[in-house]
Design brief:
This protein is α+β, with helices and mostly antiparallel strands and 304 residues long. It contains 13 helices and seven strands. It is globular.
Length: 304
Amino acid sequence: MHRRNDFWMRERECERLFEATGPYYFITTENLGWLLYKSREEFITGTNLLAVSACEAGFEIVDEIQMNNHHHVMGAGSLKKAKAFCCSFKEKMRRYQLSLGNKSLKDWEIRVDLTSDVKQFRNRVAYTDRNAYVVRLDSTPYGYPWGSANLLFNGNLWLSDPGTAWNDLTIDNRRSICRSHSIDLPETYRVVGGMITRQSFVNYRLTESLFNSANQYFTMLSRHGEADIELSQMLGEGIQLPNEEVFQIVGSWHSGCSLKDLAMTERLGSAKRMKTQLGSSNKQISQILQLDLQAVERMFPSAR
């Protein structure tokens, strides 16, 4: 009973902190059909532009991830500051991409969504931090270098390179990092290898405080579910859950009954739910429900 009370006391404290430190906005850039970043150097520049834009707007980033063709950012501040951050980042990225000879970002859409409560905050942070290993085969959330997941509940951060303090850099170095003559950044910002470290511009300690425990964060980070699919569909992202997880979800729809024993009408009903609720591919539907692939493709002819 004591442990249960401790849990709920921590939950109430998280809720109070969320209300006191918000509002929080979840920002997603349009998922482009081409790559914003093709090299380590380009990722570094993108990171720096994120940090500079947040500073200019007075928008406090608490969690983020930088993928090849889109970004997710969770930040604290007013709607005005959130929009100012988006405008600043879009303009800086527009100029940078033009310098690389890439397409114009003039019409680049950036979505700003208010985060309603601490539960939604946690779901969105977990969704953001999972992006690296849901989309990529070569990373875990803690091993992906272009996001803040490796900061959360990581007791080994003191072993990492603290970097060079911003004020200790030469003026030329500061201008190169900012890609601008405006180089007035907080002295708390630190630089490693020409990149402003996430440890110095992401308020990951605040994010940690909005989870009940490290265990809760890791549990949410490690699992997928229908909530992920709903969020990815809202954002227009084509994330597909792995077969093992889909198998468990579909099994929960037919409690006490093995999937191989389902009647054909039940399989067809489940196929429709897998397509609409889980975003499953035709191949995945065929494999999980043991349906003929050609029959599934006749059901969903426009699906890829």
